Amino acid sequence: MRSMRPDIPCLSMLPLGALAALAPVHAQEVEPAAEAAIQAVIADQMQAFREGDAAAAFAFASPMIQGMFGGDASRFGRMVASGYPPIWQPGAVTFLGQRQVEGQPVQRLMVAGPDGALHLFDYEMVEVEGGWRINGVFPVQGEAGA
Length: 146
What we know:
The protein is an alpha+beta fold. It is 31% helix and 30% strand.
């Protein structure tokens, strides 16, 4: 399984601690109604991670991501907890902006990790029956506080 962006590995495919830079692409803005719905999905997943609820967090993942983990929410949770502490136990989360990349909405976030360090992530979203789902999370090269 691959992300919609074949040039950038999906969250689950990145080595621990790896930071991938997004290649320059033509970007367009996301419709305001979609923007709010997308942010709500990400915020709800972040809350599930804060609570250590891998099953609830997994429900916000796209069918592709769920398939990569064989439908196993605990396996997904272990991967996020071990490889992405800022996402597993996020502090403050700031939504920085959305854009369309190759037809898919991408939401940039600044996340304070458990150690207080700031990290940037791009969330690729996909619309499925029933609403928006997270289709990939990509660390943005460099630290947000740097």
